[in-house]
Amino acid sequence: MDKEFRNSYEEQEINDTLQRYEEMLQSGQHLYFDVIQFEYIIDYLTEEGNIFPALQMVEMGLDQHPASMSLKTKKAGILLNLGEINKALEMTRELI
Question: Coil, strand or helix: which one is 3?
């Protein structure tokens, strides 16, 4: 049951984060998200095929959390998907 509670809690947190993201888009304001919340949004956008908005969110995330290795990794993956191989390689070098 503990695992079910965690899954339910995480699902609710993802939904709350996506709702805040939608509210941010409607209001035009930039809101603070922690790294994991940026990851939720970026994953959602990527899964929906919204690569350019995902790249914008990863950039916003790196502005707020410039040392985040996970956001740098996501940016490298997005750049690779966009065919920006040299930029993706540059990002991966920053991870080393």
Answer: helix
pTM of the model: 0.87
Burial tier of 7 (Cβ tally within 10 Å: 0-12, 13-18, 19+): exposed
Cα 59 to Cα 53: distance, rounded to the nearest angstrom: 10
Does the pLDDT at position 11 exceed 60? yes
Give the residue among 28, 21, 25, 62 at the shortest CA–CA distance from 79. Answer: 62
What crossing angle do the helices spanning 51-64 and 69-81 adopt, rounded to 10°?
160
24, 39, 62, 33 alpha-carbon torsion, rounded to 10°: 40
